[in-house]
Amino acid sequence: MICKAAATTLIGAGVVGCAQHKAEDAEPTKKPNIIFLLTDDQSDGTFSAMGHPVLKTPNLDNLLTQGVWFSNTYIATPICAPSRVSFLTGMHERKHEVGFTNSYQLSEGQWEMSYPALLRDNGYYTGFVGKFGIEYYTFQAEEMFDFWYAHDGWAPFFPKDFNTPSSIPYHEAEEDIITYIMGEGIESFLQSVNEDQPFSLSVSFSVPHASVKQTMNASPEGWGRGIHYRWTELLSPANEDPRLKGHPFYDTLYRDGSVTLPEDFGTDPYQHIPRHILDHDHTRKSWLYKYNYHAETNYENLVRYYQLISGVDHIIGNMVRSLEEKGLSDNTVIIFTSDHGLINGEYGMGGKALLYDLAAKVPCVIYDPRIPENQRGRKVAELVSSLDIPSTILDYAGIVQPDVMDGQSLLPLVYDEETQWRDEIFLESLYTGQGNPFIEGIRTGNWKYIRFYVPEREGHTEADLQFENRKPDFEQLFNLEQDPTEHNNLISVYEGTELLEELRKKCARLSADLNLERKTYMETNEVVLKDN
Asked: Which of 233, 251, 255, 453 has an alpha carbon within 20 to 30 A of 9's alpha carbon?
């Protein structure tokens, strides 16, 4: 089938609602099972099959080489809670307005238009395993799924060490490492499915986030406990903990000298973004990502980061084998991505909530066992948004996406069909806590244009996002073909050119259009202010 329907969204022109696609050796009327795998803080390129020089990810590599790799996938908003709301609802943060520093919480009305709710309403058996991570909602999340093995907020690496409120039966689990407990949850879900009913499982891993101890809370009972929480400054290896001795992933893996610091580690971060725009000493360097700014601690952080990714890879391998053993593998689609990336010392910086590719770009693979052999292992370079994931999930289930969703189904690209696709994508980061500015930008062709606005205060309402008559406080322009690592800001070089003026106009237009969409959305849908 050739699908040529087109729709215009704020992330470009593309295809919506083409739910019938070619499938090999599958019953035409049988809906596929869908597993959506989401990691936390995993940057693009972090599979060995993507060319990473250190990481070993054999199971993720198999999904990539037997599936479709979307090599230009961007997160709608590169910080955890609002990103996760965007995955669920298919909307930009500026539209759903749920996040750390904006004014609203996720309402039951918004949830009714989320992909899990729509799947459940249309006959799917739905499950959630892992980090829900939304924090702001007006309903009991566990009641919104048929199977719930999850927690909100952050999970400790060793959950049984803590009295963390959770729906996950930490103390009943056989394991005491959070990733392995997630594996137990996945297996429990697969044991519970009925072969006569299609299922959808959303798995949200809490790693590789928190590879280190969070220094914001000195108490061992604090949230987000890392892989070796008893050590404050990362000045010794995590495998000093006797529980990790002999472990295949968390003991000696990557401790052979193969891990190296980024080439620009330890350089002046203010040569990239001026201090008056982003003051690293305010939070990033002094507190939250302190370990990224010192050689010894960042080295240990990178070792743990890679170990945690390999640990996830192992659990995914177990899941795939379980699907095969249960006779479910031939009709189960697996989608893998991350909530955003992470800067681990590059640019002399640490953290997320920026629009550099390291933070805003993520790995994305769709494994569909029904696609023809000659279409597997393809690398698709079209611009993809995280907002496309819920659209794709609904399309697989044969459900037309709600009009409020901003993404478009990836199925035409999965099946290598002739289709129109977007040539530009709008990016934003609206998290203004810990000294971060408002940031928005556009990626089109080889170019990325970014503009920064310093907020008047931490937190914001929709009125603060009206940038139409405001000059940016700082701008960046990168030619990604010549400068893929985004180190050479070309703003001054291209000042006065038609190219830069066009990029500025496009970004401003998309920003203003999204403000109008938000206004319409808020007038016609249930939105709920946070309880302050």
From this structure: 453
334 burial type by CB count under 10 A (0-12 exposed, 13-18 middle, 19+ buried):
buried
- Which of 20, 24, 26 is closest to 2 using CA atoms? 20
Asked, as a colleague might, if the bond just before 208 is cis with ω within 30 of 0, I would say: yes
* Amino acid (1-letter code) at residue 255: R
The DSSP secondary-structure symbol of 401 reads P
Closest CA to 286 of 453, 435, 81: 435
Handedness of CA 424, 342, 153, 178 (dihedral sign): positive
| pLDDT tens digits for range 313-334 | 999 999 999 999 999 999 999 9
Fold observed for domain 30-422: Alkaline Phosphatase, subunit A (3.40.720)
Residue 438 parent element (H or E): strand 438-444
List, for residues 381-433, the tens digit of each pLDDT value.
999 999 999 999 999 999 999 999 999 999 999 999 899 999 999 999 999 99
Domain ranges of the chain: 30-422
Q: How far apart are the two ends of the chain, measured CA to CA in Å?
A: 52
What is the DSSP annotation of 164-187? ---SS-GGGSS--SHHHHHHHHHH
Q: What is the DSSP string of 470-532?
A: ---SEEEEEETTT-TT-----HHHHTT-HHHHHHHHHHHHHHHHHHHHHHHHHHHS--EE---
Distances (CA, A) of 321 to 59, 87, 287, 318, 421: 10, 27, 42, 5, 35
- Taking alpha carbons only, the member of 318, 312, 314, 307 closest to residue 338 is 312
